[in-house]
Amino acid sequence: MNHRGTIVVSGASGLIGSALKCSLLSRGYLVRELSRKPNLPRGQSWDPATEQMDASILEDTIAVVHLSGEPIAQRWTFAVRQKILESRVKSTAMLAKNLAQMDSPPPLIVASGINYYGASCSGENGDITESSQSGTGFLASVCREWEGAAQPLINVGGRVVFMRTGVVLSAQGGALAKLLLPFRLGFGGPIGHGQQHMSWIAISDLVSAYVKAIEDGSIAGPINAVSPNSITNKAFTTALARSLFRPAILPLPAFLLRVVFGCMAKETLLADMNVIPQRLLDMQFEWQTPDINSALLSCLKERPNG
Ligand SMILES: NC(=O)c1ccc[n+]([C@@H]2O[C@H](COP(=O)([O-])OP(=O)(O)OC[C@H]3O[C@@H](n4cnc5c(N)ncnc54)[C@H](OP(=O)(O)O)[C@@H]3O)[C@@H](O)[C@H]2O)c1
């Protein structure tokens, strides 16, 4: 069978990468993984920490999707902060620099986060769209530097898309998978006062948004990859408990999260983020699960015991 072209995916072993890889293969693309694992076929191993990569992996490709980065959901010691930042900035800079040297570079689709807008962006000063200013906090500065590292490719006219992603819902990993056990045991409940907004996207819709960014050559710049229906944390936990036929009555106190996770809790679990996917709405992107109940139902079907 003729294939539709080769796409390089870094971090293809991760939550988003493994779902994206499956979808790309089923659509007839070939996927070349870029990973820190040793013993991979020639050119597929890289080491962002020491800025080592074999640029030949980029040859004869139609797109590069960059998903790798040190996990965010851990306590942010000084060393962890450095890793979170450097793993994203150095790797993006390496890809952008190598792509910029090519005669006709393929597009670069880079993961980013809605954390770009800061941990408190619920829209008191107007809707938060792709044209809103970046905010304050560690993750906002990580997102700015991460996106900024792609500038060498933009400077030579390359197409670069930044997928500013909200909380990804999947039963296979990430925030939802971590909540399933306590909620199944009946220990679920809102986080803190529960009034903080949460901008989320189901993994299947996120994968479709990545595919659109790859295939539509007119898309460049930031895309808010979230559902058009953000909800409060209380509404989310109520919907999750309902979908599992359990109560959601035990709140998780904010002070406890701050003690256990420090700033990470403040900028993620307790963050108030109400972000509008304006560009996806403008391009009439069709979410398969735009509301939280259908999204949870679809995610929980992902595994047999869901
Ligand atoms: N999941 C979410 O809710 C969410 C929300 C917003 C933004 N994002 C961003 O989207 C991207 C993909 O997310 P994900 O949830 O799929 O992440 P993930 O499951 O943690 O996978 C990321 C991949 O990055 C590589 N990696 C891990 N530590 C690294 C390090 N120190 N240096 C370089 N590479 C490293 C790993 O691949 P190898 O071991 O093969 O190298 C791993 O499979 C991330 O940048 C993440 O910050 C995710």
Tag the structure with descriptive keywords.
single chain; alpha/beta; 306 residues; two-stranded parallel sheet; 37% helix; six-stranded parallel sheet; 11 helices; binds NADP nicotinamide-adenine-dinucleotide phosphate; Rossmann fold
Give a list of the ligands. Answer: NADP nicotinamide-adenine-dinucleotide phosphate
Shape: globular
Q: State the end-to-end distance.
A: 36 Å
If helices are DSSP runs of H or I spanning 4 or more residues, what is the number of helices?
A: 11
Give the strand tally. Answer: 12
Range of strand content:
5-15%
Report the average pLDDT across residues.
Answer: 94
Helical content stands at 25-40%
Level-1 CATH class name: Alpha Beta
SSE order, one letter for each helix or strand: EHEEHEEHHEEHEEHEEHHHEHH
The number of domains: 1
CATH topology: Rossmann fold
Main sheet, how many strands, which sense, barrel? Answer: 6 strands, parallel
Radius of gyration equals 19 Å
